[in-house]
Amino acid sequence: MRRTLGLLFLSVVLLASACGGTKRATPTPTASAAASPQVSPTATPTESVYAHIAPADMNPAIANVTPRVYVPNSMSNTVDVIDPSTMKIVDHFKVGKLPQHVTPSWDMKTLYVDNDLGDSLTPIDPATGKRGTDIPVIDPYNLYFTPDGKYAIVVAERFQLLYFRDPHTWRTIKTVRIDHRGPNHLDFSPDGRYLLISCEFSGYVVKVDLQRLEVVDSVHVGGKPADVRISPDGTAFFVANEFRDGVSVIDPDAMKETHFIKTGRGAHGFVVSRDGTKLYVTNRSGGSVSVIDMAARTSVAKWETGGSPDMGGVSADGTRLWVSNRYGGSVMAVDTSDGHVVATIYVGAGPHGVCVFPQPGRFSLGHTGNYR
């Protein structure tokens, strides 16, 4: 049965990716949680990009929020909520069609379920665990926030568009077209001047200027580029590549690949370690997680987890890596000291962008929890 659900889920995703020509009416924006007063996104020249994600850096506004793991089940159109202390599901609710990721807002006071084919975001109050009223948003495959908190960026993968929206009202400020198929995952420069976004179905990585809100450059890396993360020193971007079974290292100034790190079959998702030095890489087709030393640009470990590890996050203390088993209908908790699977919790069909919350950081850049 799980194999059947996995194949069915893959078919839906491929069909959705092929529907880029579909026309939809623009929905009326709905008000949502406003961002907190802005925090400077810029790191000092000697400071790591990830200097503020250590356990002691928990934002006081969310320090007392009960830890939970939020699991969007893409094929079930539901969210399961796991208590990480008991490894049990403590809540379950319906959301819009094809939920892809659960995304923390810039101020970390709201979680958003990205209902891709449902053309909506479902807000969740992490303090209570209760869902709110859906917000109409076109094709939210992914959701990000600029480092200064000024814009919410809705990644409309099927339409090859980035919607720059007001995170208070969700009004569209500007729409930027990406001329390569499958715009997907992204990350930002340390000073917030630009972003790099992967284009999964065309093998490109595209650079977007955030002052002008326009595409300024691109590089062809081939294969099937997926998740994106910046290096701690801010000089390079790591890009997972499913078809090349590893990770490209991109120089964002020259816009060229300078290194390639082999990891495992179907390299797909990234999670930064709690100390900000390592990158956990989920090898979705290979049933493993690789560990990259970001400064050395090398793979230093490989953990055989089984299943199809996809997206996730790390616990606030850094001891557990939580990842979805995309085609196995479960979520895995992995011990970050040696990579053994501590627990497997069965959830709905097609679990995808798992959000572990709360986590340390000054603000959230979105996705499933990329903090600075």
CATH homologous superfamily caption:
YVTN repeat-like/Quinoprotein amine dehydrogenase
Give the rounded overall mean pLDDT.
Answer: 91
Low-confidence stretches: 1-37
- Approximate shape: globular
Largest sheet entry: 5 strands, antiparallel
CATH class: Mainly Beta
Strand count: 29
SS-derived structural category: mainly beta
Helical amount: under 10%
Q: Using only CA atoms, what is the Rg? A: 18 Å
What is the number of helical segments per DSSP (H or I, 4+ residues)?
1
CATH topology (fold) name: Methylamine Dehydrogenase, Chain H
* CATH architecture type: 7 Propeller
Domain module tally:
1
CA(first)-CA(last) distance? 41 Å
Write the H/E string, N to C.
HEEEEEEEEEEEEEEEEEEEEEEEEEEEEE
Beta content comes to 35-45%
